[in-house]
Write a structure and sequence with these properties.
The structure is a homotetramer. The first copy, chain A, is mainly alpha-helical. Chain A has 17 helices and four strands. In chain A, helix 6 packs parallel to helix 11, helix 9 packs antiparallel against helix 10 and helix 13 packs antiparallel against helix 14.
Chain lengths: 419, 419, 419, 419
């Protein structure tokens, strides 16, 4: 808010609305350390917003002579909205760095584990073989997309300067020149017109942050599921009490999922405040604008925290290909039932194929025999040799276009400048 | 879903996976009228999704010989997600048309009412003079922005085709060629990789729809506020029972705000389902994906209804410049207190200016005298003539950059092809 | 709505406002089958609510002579709100029956598995031994609580009858008598005053339904986690395609969690519509009331579906004590590290105890030796015998008050009339 | 959290688990001022919750000898959940006081304005005459209901004490006795069993707080609408900058609606976090529990702030019966069209009545003549005298059961101990 006030005074001086000496005084006084946020917060209750007491405090700090030029022609919302855009820019820039780190981490895992076979799971049940590299390529692509969407949502952050009703009458003929100068000095975009009660920009950022948090949640929850003792396919970094318990010395908790899961649930809810606040009355809302303030800060804080925690999780992730292999073995040759069914269908038609596979699955489930043996016993050999059956139930040859998808994901990542 | 199944079979035939005769049979059978949505819905409860019974019904319709080639190599999610993209494309195209009509309606009002003076209101209180044209230019800019954002969110809708775990193993070597052919035939984009549990695309559309609904709500609620009997600055179209009451024959209700307010509240809530469902387990979610289905349909329906109702509201809006003028008069010359204060501050300094204006406001509030007279009595004449005071309290000369902002809004609208 | 109209006419007849012959005509005409919901829905768009066309249709059905007495003195909201209360009563009664079945199912599992040892898991990691009976006793208590809360939220459902502005002026002196008679005939409560824009009752029901859906989600998601192939401690019922996949013949999906997870996510979002709609303008809202209609129906439908699906899940659940035992074994004696630490702390003090346990955990993790052996090697024998150590690492003697908690949960359930 | 730790140690001492000297040391050390919340917050990131560092700090403060008895047998969640219940109790007690003040304020307005005629408004349009006393009686009844619901939601707040998996194994045979003693000392209820992953209690409180905030929003938004310059029927208290603007010296803003509207929008969203977090995995959730912490605090803070601001708004409200009267006059005799229609229907039948009233409304709208004169001209005199028409269009005799409803609302309020 201080930056906005200084930029305003400076711009006004360039068109002669404010004396240069006042600008110097204002710029000198506008040091963050001089102002007590707690006191300003308290005073904000009476005035209904924090700009009123801040301006008062800034006037005092500036000294009597220049006090009147503080906040010249602006309304509280001009300062608060412009400050929000500055905070959004700084905070999303930090979030973007976390996302870049996270994406690079996913890319590194993808390169390493392109061939690492594991069970692909749908509805938490073994479905088909896949590779860990394809899983992380999915994470990578999702993060890159969330990142691009966030970038797009902030690449034209606008200045707010419209005065009390959006006409900018307070600045007379000089209004447009001041808008241009302030926008230039703060590196913000000049909007078509003041957006005091048209909050699409805020909503676009909020939506992009919700996608960031949700994407982080997808990744860390996958990690938590893979960390289950009975699955044990990855582990998060430990040390310095990380993941420890207050009572259970043997515990190794998936703390990233706890942090990110907590944050993303709150983001998901809070983004609704912003959408619900699009309907702002006339030239300034009574409540809807006020609901945005803390909400936007929380959205930045929580989605930023989620992105950073996920980047940290991925950077410290240990992968256990042995466990992946043994879970694949434990899932059994039944994991290839789709492949066998399709091949049998090609050769024998649908009804016989389904019947043979169903019989074999029933036998393999009940007895100790493998699915391949059960298939033979169920009559599959009428259409294919035992050797062919053996080849069909080999998971390592049934990962489809995994390699190609990985290539594409890495290429797309690299084309965005990712490493 | 039927279009997706046909496109799949056709693409598979081009690479030799499926016999051409089967494609013909499938295309012939895939007529919407043959299938009973209610029965499919009931059957979907057991299987957990509607694709399973649809495929069964399609196989029956296709006949024994070709039945096995229906849904070849696809998983339920491939069909459902692809179908969702097709529905999103069709529905958002209709929404876009409503938004175009709405924007053009706002532009027309803006051109007509560029000079129509009215009270600008903040927190539901008179703040400063403005013009109705500037208000509608604000609506226009907001609608154009919501529209562009929606367009951006759907301009690369991707095909979904990854098989049961996203590896596309079911299609073997031919997977990528089939993906390319299906994408081409449905005019969808080929994704980097299957996005079964990476729902950023869905979330981007949902967010854009929430902005559409919120923007519609802003406009129609402004209309409802302006239609209040005590304000009476605009009226919605009547006739054919529109806006009537079941008991009060004299009533003229702002029905657009009722419809849009109801719809946008639900959209605001439902969009959270989509963000909350970004965290989908492994290679297929258990619940989060299922939550999306009806939600996306509702989001399209409700935001589309809101856009259409708002376009209709604006097309039939009657503006009452006389009421705007009389409300401006009733607001009194005090509405120009900002202007007087700033001019007095320039001439006399801040403290005297504030004191004189405060005195004058106290007098003007209590007595029957105008603010101008009260200013004179409070001593303003020490710094400015009575004539100057009279000029300062004239609202028609205090609408600032209203005209320029209107020019910019119209130019931006026209540059998008708007009329 | 028809029931409300008939009850109104009947009550008005008792006080002489409406002729008895008209009541007979109205009651005879008010048959559900006569009215086309789709046509009424279409007509509702113009009037802004469905009561206006329904009343028109009812007047036509009633015949000219009695038509004027239809809807006498009522406003649309009277009929719609009263009808909502009737729907809420019927639907929550059905939901209550599902919850009763569900609770009884949990109680039955609790009685059967009071002694069934299993791994207790926190943050998806093995934490301590517990029993399956204690887990289901937790479910049972949660369901009973959700059920009681729902009952409390509907046990005084009020009539709505206040006329167009809540004064009931349309009924003159007879207003209170009519209210009493309608309330009596519909078995609804007389409210203190009309609640047209005071929707606390609706919000209380909505909140209770959200708790029902969330409780169902807790249970079915636990089931889905326990059904994971790597955990395999329970299975849902199969047969008739239940839990099957469109492509993977070996799959056995946790369909309850998919259905309930989908429904409860939507309920969680939709309940916010109702809370957000508490702020209704003056004597009738413009939008907030309209947002409630479909929302309340959806909340009833979705939470009712979730309750029924969960009851069904529990009724058909197969428990695998062998898997529970083998997972407990696999978790290792380390699962008892808390117990060992506490006993060692009592004997040796905190620092030595922590050191010995940490050493033993490090050894047991790395080597093949058990935690008990590792403890001996780490020096625990300075304070306790090997036999004592062996007793401490036995999970079957470390389930604390599990039995007592189960007794209490069953007693509480039975005291509510549960079986 | 410190209170919970002390109560735990004290209870454990009564059953001999912890030495009395340790209890004294713990109680002496557990002074809030000794602990740095910021440092604890930072340390909480690694451990995943704030209890771990608090226990560490408390152990240090207690001294080596007794350190081991701190947190004996408890898990982090026991302390955090119990502390949450204590915070909920204290905070809701303060909220209850605000609601009591608010209700008494509404009751006082109701007594004063029982006869104050005003326009009743539906969909923001004049509907029928009503009284300001009936409007405030509606507020009163809503507040009393919200208050009772909140009371009910906290009148059995339970202790949490179950150890790491809810078995309370850490306390051996003494578990139940310790639970009873801690519950007794903190005046909390003993739950049926530990509720670590069964959060119905938290959700019930959250729902009740959402109703409090929504009720406050209804009242303050009504006030803001009534404060519109064009309506001017009430004013909020001014003075000390309350309701002032940073730029517009004449402004008098409805600040209560801004504060409460902002808070209640956030509450509406945040309550969804709690419902969405009912689905907690197994014996401790990974994320869902963590999402609750800040959410519950925010819900208490925001709904408490909303209740207090609304109480303040009502206590300082100035009512303007003159404006109410003049708005009633301005609404015209048409406001009584319902009454005329019903009386004409009784005498002439529905069709003639509707025709006459429609004619009269068309005339009265277009010409300067009153509705009464227009009715005469439209032929109403065929069924009623001019005198009768004059009596029918008198709003003061058409407020129905307003008086009775007020009596009931005040009686209900007084029966709850309200003043």
């Amino acid at each position: 808010m201080l930056r906005a006030e200084v930029a305003l005074a400076r711009a006004e001086a360039t068109v002669g609305l404010v004396p240069p000496s006042a600008v110097e005084a204002i710029a000198a006084a506008a040091e963050r350390e001089r102002f007590d946020p707690v006191a300003l917060g308290r005073a904000a209750r009476a005035s209904g917003n924090p700009v009123v007491p801040l301006v008062e405090a800034l006037r005092t700090a500036v000294g009597e002579e220049s006090a009147q030029w503080v906040h010249w022609g602006a309304t509280s919302q001009d300062i608060l909205d412009t400050a929000t855009m500055l905070v959004v820019r700084d905070a999303t820039s930090a979030i973007d760095r976390s996302l870049a780190t996270l994406a690079d981490g996913c890319a590194a895992l993808t390169r390493l584990h392109r061939q690492t076979l594991m069970v692909g799971r749908s509805l938490l049940q073994p479905a088909l073989p896949t590779t860990f590299g394809l899983k992380t390529a999915g994470w990578l692509t999702a993060v890159d997309r969330a990142r691009r969407h966030l970038e797009r949502s902030v690449n034209e952050l606008p200045l707010q300067l419209g005065g009390a009703a959006g006409t900018l009458a307070s600045l007379g003929e000089e209004g447009p020149a001041v808008v241009a100068a302030v926008a230039d000095s703060l590196s913000l975009v000049q909007p078509v017109l003041p957006w005091h009660t048209h909050r699409q920009q805020v909503a676009e950022v909020a939506g992009a942050l919700a996608i960031v948090a949700g994407t982080a949640n997808k990744i860390t929850y996958d990690v938590a599921l893979l960390m289950q003792a009975e699955v044990a396919e990855v582990s998060e970094r430990t040390g310095n009490g990380r993941g420890g318990s207050s009572t259970l010395p043997q515990k190794h908790n998936p703390v990233s999922a706890a942090i990110v899961g907590g944050a993303s649930r709150r983001v998901t809810a809070l983004v609704g405040v912003v959408y619900g606040s699009l309907a702002q009355e006339h030239e300034r809302a009574v409540g809807a604008w006020h609901a945005e303030w803390a909400t936007v800060t929380e959205l930045l804080r929580l989605s930023g925290g989620a992105a950073a925690a996920t980047a940290d999780c991925i950077a410290g992730l240990t992968v256990h290909p042995d466990s992946m292999a043994s879970n694949l073995t434990a899932a059994g040759q039944e994991l290839l039932a789709e492949r066998v069914t399709m091949e049998l269908t090609r050769r024998a038609g649908r009804a016989p194929a389904l019947a043979v596979v169903a019989d074999a699955l029933a036998v393999a489930g009940g007895s100790g025999s493998t699915f391949a043996v059960a298939l033979e016993e169920a009559g599959a050999t009428a259409w294919m040799s035992g050797e062919e059956i053996g080849a069909l139930v080999d998971p390592s040859t049934y990962v489809g276009s995994s390699d190609l998808f990985i290539d594409r994901a890495l290429a797309a990542h690299e084309s965005l400048g990712g490493g």
